[in-house]
Amino acid sequence: MPWLLNEALIPVEIFHERYAQRTRRELAAGRISLSDAVENLNFGFWRQLTAERHEQTIWRPYLRRLFPERTRRVRVHAVVDHMVVLRNLVQHNNMVVNLDLRTRWKEMLWLLACLDPTIAAERRQISTLPGLLSPQPTGVSHADDRSRSRNRRLPVFRV
User: Fold this and answer.
1) What is the DSSP string of 95-107?
2) Which of 18, 95, 3, 110 is nearest to 49 (CA)?
3) Given 48, 86, 116, 126, which is the most exposed site by the fewest CB atoms within 10 A?
4) Taking a C-beta distance cutoff of 8 angstroms, is the pair 158, 126 a contact?
5) Which of these, 122, 110, 14, lies nearest to 67 by C-alpha position?
6) 104, 86 in Cβ contact below 8 A?
7) In this predicted model, what pLDDT tens digit does every residue of 67-122 receive, in sequence order?
8) Is the separation of the CB atoms in 67 and 114 below 8 Å?
9) What is the sign of the dihedral through the CA atoms of 125, 103, 89 and 68?
10) 17-30 tens-digit pLDDT
11) Beta strands in the chain, from DSSP E residues, in sequence order
12) Using CA atoms, how far apart are residues 136 and 130, in angstroms rounded to an integer?
């Protein structure tokens, strides 16, 4: 059984026990793959895995091997935490204009590059997000932008 589903390693507060039991049964019966099980984990799960309280039980024996040598758990946790906060703000239609979105984008690319440099390079190349984060052109005020935005569709971008 993969460490991710090991009852002794993953505390209940991270991996809801009902979900874990159902996932183990479905894996054993061949109804789902391990990829399906991982795909259905929520973002909060990954944030909890990188928390300080799990450094000895999860980070050191398992997770740190996924990252380049000398990658610090504290940095990974901070980036994952920022991603969870940003995702939740967007999901709940909260304002994100006060966040440093350019830094968040760089953090996401860093984390992705740690796990898969090829995919990170691909994302960097095809994403339109950096263009949307470009500084506002000179002579355009935020007031003008707000009045026009009521009648304008938001741009679609690829992350």
Assistant:
1) --TTS-HHHHHHH
2) 3
3) 126
4) yes
5) 110
6) yes
7) 999 999 999 999 999 999 999 888 888 888 888 899 999 999 999 999 999 999 99
8) yes
9) positive
10) 677 778 888 888 99
11) none
12) 13
